[in-house]
Design brief:
122 residues, mainly beta, seven-stranded mixed β-sheet, four-stranded antiparallel β-sheet, 0% helix
């Protein structure tokens, strides 16, 4: 059974940090790019960051560049999203997803987690 399980969300004050984890099982983790997405209330789901398989090249949405860092540990089948200098506008449910074809568009991702809530208070 394919599973992606997010953890590490919570409530934090503006300027604080959180580290999200995405633990994968049931598929060949090394072969997949892993992306982080978020969805705020009343808004569409958007891409935040993605890390490729193989050489682990990272991509970031402009609003998180310099604040968020994505990394992967293939030995643990886990991807991390370190989020620093958090802002209230970062409040959302954060999802991780796996894509065999690389860091592509949202609709192409093969597997999705259930999400973890991140709330940043002002």
């Amino acid at each position: 059974e394919v599973q992606l399980v997010e953890s590490g969300g919570g409530l934090v004050q503006a300027g604080g940090s959180l580290r999200l984890s995405c633990a994968a099982s049931g598929f060949t983790f090394d072969d997949y790019a892993i992306g982080w997405f978020r969805q705020a209330p009343g808004k569409e789901r958007e891409g935040v960051s993605c890390i490729s398989n193989g050489d682990g090249v990272a991509q970031y949405e402009d609003s998180v560049k310099g604040r968020f860092t994505i990394s992967r540990d293939n030995a643990k089948n886990t991807v991390y999203l370190q989020m620093n200098s958090l802002k209230p506008e970062d409040t959302a449910v954060y999802y991780c997803a796996a894509d065999f074809m690389g860091c592509t568009v949202l609709s192409d991702y093969d597997y999705w987690g259930q999400g973890t809530q991140v709330t940043v208070s002002s």
